[in-house]
Amino acid sequence: VSSWLGNSSGLPFPPGPAPRFITGNLHEIPAKQPWLTYTDWKSQYGDIVHARIFGQHIIFANSLKIATDLFEKRSHLYSDRPAAPMIDLIGWDFNVGLMPYTDKWRQHRRLFQQSFRPDAARTYRPIQMTKIHDFLRGLLSRPEDFVALYKTVAAAIIMATMYGYQVEPIEDHFVTLSEEAVKMLSDTTLPGAAAVNAFPFLRHLPGWLPGCGFQYFAAECRKRTEEMQQVPFDFVKQNMREGTSAKSIVSTLLEANQVIRAVSATAYAGAFTVSSLGTFFYAMAAQSEIDNVIGTHRLPEFEDRPSLPYIEALYREVMRWKPVLPLGVPHATIADDVYEGYFIPKGATIISNIWAMTHDESIYPEPDRFNPDRFFTADGKLNDDDTVLAFGFGRRICVGRHTADATVWATIVSVLSAFTIAKAKDEAGNEIDIDPVYSDGFVSHPQPFQCSIAPRSELAQNLVEATADL
Ligand code: HEM
């Protein structure tokens, strides 16, 4: 009770909606697109907002300044993750991104960084391009399956770099395993999603008791999560035994070590966040820049990046407009703190409201409009707003960001160089409008929609077909 109500500091919590006695603000947390509600709270209460769900204090960092002050300048206090018993129950505690701020996290993060720091990330470029070219050929032969295809490209890159495993173009067993495990995680971690997060003692009660059905769900999740870690790991070990192992991060690091198993499965799950890729299909421009700089006789390469400022702006806008994790991954405090006269208790959940930051009208006028031009100065130069907020903050900033950045950029430029994407037409020849609908939950993916994807020219088609022989 003292943690629910208690604040012995004599200082106020940051402003926020009035909580009810027991449940706090639970009744105000919407199931759908909660980041929109939290961004409304920003207009009402300011850049730092406090809410409570049962005994859990939640602080929303709604501006870049607050995020920088807390997650970066006070990173020694703000780098923990909230304790969520449901994460342990479903077996996701193996994941670096969800681990508390402990020596174990440091060890996993260090290993991850070794394989994903900028110079290491550059060595994966050939694999990235190969998989992106597979994707382009997929678009030629099955444009109607573009959603399944772009989802696979991100997974294909991670699976090839981590495990040396080449995914099947459709319904790959490993990819399906990971997709299901990520979906289960997404369903169980939002505030208010699982009673056991609010009442941790419930984890000790058997599933047959009323209200404890989550135990059966959790047991099923644990099985999937275990499989998701073990199956691709066994694949590498088997190939190494048989001497057929392709070079991969796991085969390079492998000393039959549990940390590697967990770190690699973390990366494998990270693949799904690369669904930022879906977003850029909503927007078409920039082909003339590619034609002017690269010409039409070859496909783009990573080395072209500095010469393509418009594509750079397009990439930034894709990452700004619909951040894949609109509320980031929650941080938590490891001790009491006072910020600008407000009390922030130990164990509080700190949400980086990335949506509010990337839709801040004072920085991005008309924030809901997709407009890459906003990243140019008045004299037509790319501006210096090059920090992608979608990757989060401080010591917990996304470790896969260099690889993810390269994948998203290279996919955008490759598709644009070879294809025209337009609205689909109905039987009467009228254009079908696109209604951008995104999934709810922890990860926000674009939902399937219709559009027309066709090679820009015969030359473009030949270039894409020729990638099969590379
Ligand atoms: C467009 C793609 C991606 C986006 C937008 C993204 C975004 C994020 C965000 C917002 C966080 C939380 C940062 C914070 O706590 O403040 C995060 C953490 C993380 N990401 Fe990514 N990510 C992407 C791709 C990837 C990929 C491809 C990998 C793996 C190869 C990856 C691995 C991780 C890991 C391991 C963490 C946890 C770091 C920690 O807690 O110490 N991410 N990511």
From TrEMBL:
Binding site for heme: C398
Record keyword Metal-binding present: yes
Species whose genome carries this gene: Mycena rosella
Functional pathway: Secondary metabolite biosynthesis
Pfam families: p450
Cofactor(s) needed: heme
Single Gene Ontology MF annotation: heme binding
Name of this protein: CyP450 monooxygenase
Source organism superkingdom: Eukaryota
Entry keywords, A to Z: Heme, Iron, Metal-binding, Monooxygenase, Oxidoreductase, Signal
Assigned protein family: Belongs to the cytochrome P450 family.
CDD domains in the record: CYP64-like (cd11065)
